[in-house]
Amino acid sequence: MSDVCIVGIGIHRFGRTDGLSGLQQGVHAVRAALGDAGVDWPQIQFAYGGSDAAGNPDTMVEQLGLTGVQFINVKNGCATGGSALFSAQMAIKSGEFELGLAVGFDKHPRGAFNALPAEYNLPDWYGEAGYMITTQFFAAKIMRYMHEFGISPTSLGRVAEKAFRNAVHAPHAWRREPVDLDTIMGAPLVSDPYTKYMFCSPAEGGVALVLASERKARELGKPLIRLKAATMRTRPPGSFEVFAPSIDIARGGSATRIAAADAFRQAGIGPDEIAVAQLQDTEAGAEIMHMAENGFCADGEQEAWLAEGRTELAGRLPVNTDGGCLACGEPIGASGLRQVYENVVQLRGDGGGRQVPGSPRTAYSHVYGAPGVSAVTILER
Questions:
Q1: Which CB contacts under 8 angstroms, 24+ apart, belong to 250-257?
Q2: Which of 38-42, 235-239, 332-336 has the largest mean confidence?
């Protein structure tokens, strides 16, 4: 079975774009990706599209062209983009198609995500009591983790400081001003131990990726950015997840751990062979916990990693090179695809001021969504 390759990438900047719908931002990204791949819309054989709050992605054919293309909508929490990509690469791996599209977009209103209990098989009282507020859950989760593994509040600040510093060089990022550690640590608390700079914000934006079989990629004359692995897993017993009404005393695994293990097995490489990584960072502590859950370090080692700069652009494993969700914001449908977009940029050597040195050859992305869904990809050039 030949590899699936990413032959085109496109993005509409994240943040706030008045006067433009989420779907229109998705269309912008698709047209950019088609241009990057050197193909026209009628050549696309299928598409998977994701959006949480900005309408059905398949309706973008009204603007792209009524070609009769097979177009499937995907909705899977914050892992929507990763799930769309997972589905798209399977369509090519099957041998049924040679050229397809994964696209995601969203346009969230200002304020917190409005998660509804019924969507997660929970009773109304669960929301009425305030338990659907994710800032509280994430704060409780990291407090437990910090206690168990000796992570300091300063490490949370270092993650946020790195994010805003990297985003200065990312044209698609929303917040592109550096914020120093003292300002981050001294900012108002949202949910202890998180200050306002340690959470991402709901946002707008769109990302599109054109995928091709290896034969088609060679025919197009594109550099071979191979999708060596794409996995997506749901939560196992005993995992501690968003909107979990309770937690087992005996802790289990997580969707991220099993998705990561699957991805490394598929790619035939280990964590120490990854040159750059994009990890889900809806809040600063998520990046820290996901460093371990994805197999890059042991629980508790993050304290030293961050203090020694190992996740900086020139470090041992650069993490969230465009600022991640903390700096880019999170339009749910597009966020996971942004990670892969950024990895393609890095593997092409087009990162400019945020480019990882040494011509990286491998790149990893991980996205996590409620109520415990994770998707992982590994790219190689």
A1: 254/293, 254/372, 254/374, 255/368, 255/372, 255/373, 255/374, 256/290, 256/293, 256/294, 256/366, 256/368, 256/374, 256/376, 257/293, 257/294, 257/295
A2: 38-42
Task: Write the CB contacts of 200 (distance below 8 Å, at least 6 apart in sequence).
Answer: 281, 282, 283, 324, 325, 326, 328, 329, 330
Nearest to 13 by CA among 257, 246, 228, 322: 322
* Inter-residue contact 369 to 79 (CB < 8 Å): yes
Residue 201 predicted with pLDDT over 90: yes
Q: How far apart are CA 72 and CA 218, in angstroms?
A: 27
Q: Fold for 4-111+200-380, please state it.
A: Peroxisomal Thiolase; Chain A, domain 1 (3.40.47)
Amino acid making up residue 359: S
Q: Is 95 helix (H, G, I), strand (E, B) or coil?
A: coil
Identify whether the C-beta of residue 363 lies closer than 8 Å to the C-beta of residue 277. Answer: yes
The dihedrals phi and psi of 361, each to the nearest 5 degrees, come to: -110, -15
Q: Which neighbouring-strand residues pair with 103?
A: 49, 208
The backbone torsions φ and ψ at residue 103, rounded to the nearest 5 degrees and listed phi first, read -140, 145
Reply yes or no on whether the pLDDT at 128 is more than 90.
no
Q: What is the pLDDT of residues 152-200, one digit of tens each?
A: 999 999 999 999 999 999 999 999 999 999 999 999 999 999 999 999 9
Q: Does the pTM exceed 0.90?
A: yes
Structure token pair of residue 353:
């001021």
